[in-house]
Fold Aminotransferase class I/II-fold pyridoxal phosphate-dependent enzyme.
Amino acid sequence: MNKRLHLSIAHMGNNEQKYVQEAFDQNWVAPLGPNVDKFEEVVAEYSERKAAAALSSGTSGLHLALKLLDVQQGDAVFCSSLTFIASANPIVYEKATPVFIDSERDTWNMSPLALERALKEAAEAGQLPKAVIIVNLYGQVAKMDELIALCDSYDVPVIEDSAESLGSLYKGRKSGSFGKFSVFSFNGNKIITTSGGGMLLADDEELIKKARFLSTQARDAALHYQHSEIGYNYRMSNVCAGIGRGQMEVLEDRVKRRREIFDMYARELKDVKGISLMPELEGTKSNRWLTAMTIDSELTHVTPVELIEKLAEDNIESRPVWKPLHLQPVFEGTKFYPHDEDVAKYLFENGICLPSASIMTDEDVIFVCERVKAVLSVEHVNQ
Ligand SMILES: *Cc1c(COP(=O)(O)O)cnc(C)c1O
């Protein structure tokens, strides 16, 4: 059996252990400490943001963003449908009502057409959402100009869920710099990791101060333990932040490698009829966190699930595209605004993500391509 080829896996650089060692040497093993401060500073500067709060997860970042926007029971919050469920769970934590917005074909992200319809209807019904969560799928930034202009015209704040898109660009601007808040995840499967963690970013330093307060049990400035608000235990530890500092030093290398892997797939699979790789919107640069593609089963005579099962026989991990949230049993009956036909559903039913870990060698990628081609049993025209 060959070695396992993962969709995405941790890939350490040279200095992570050094920063973790510093935390041990200074006995800053508890939450907070110099690594946390430095990590926040580095990520905020990289992301063209004024302030950042290092947290225990991306999910907690989204949750605090909703808290800071005063989302309350019964409020509506719009969210991309084609995403990991963590994008929407915090809406439910606050007993607010999610409304799901479809994808469009150019980016696989939130459709401006569907968002426009949803906002118009909400305004007419007198129930504009408290926030719109825009997700950047697999590293591709959504059509921010169009989406943010729409939200601005109704005065609705945007949260950029950039959990998958650290290192991506949109018209020269960094992902994570859009909206009132943005959120990164440093979970083990993301482009860089702190072994679990996240960050909330904004340009309003007061809001980030408040986020730090809420993430450390909302303790008032008093000697005794006094609390006037309910808080959370959401802060990142100084040990994890040390890993993050080391990881930020190799972020550009990781983006470069993930893009190379995508390009290799594109090159090797270009003559296979029925395969279309995820597009990249003009003027944007995706970090290509995951290489995703759709397959037209009428041409390939193989469904995505059959391909995934076949690849698993060779110890290759591949997965369907995220199951859209409006199709999840837990969100049954939730309002959904389609693009024209249901694009998210199409991408889910026909999409597949290939191993994209930055530790993969060229030979690993070629091996996956050979197995894909063998399963689809097509002649490679150029060879
Ligand atoms: C990973 C992810 C999250 C959640 O991040 P965690 O750090 O795992 O809590 C949120 N949104 C998207 C789109 C993600 O991919």
Q: What stands out?
A: The first strand starts at residue 51 and ends at 55. Confidence is low (pLDDT under 50) at residues 379-383.
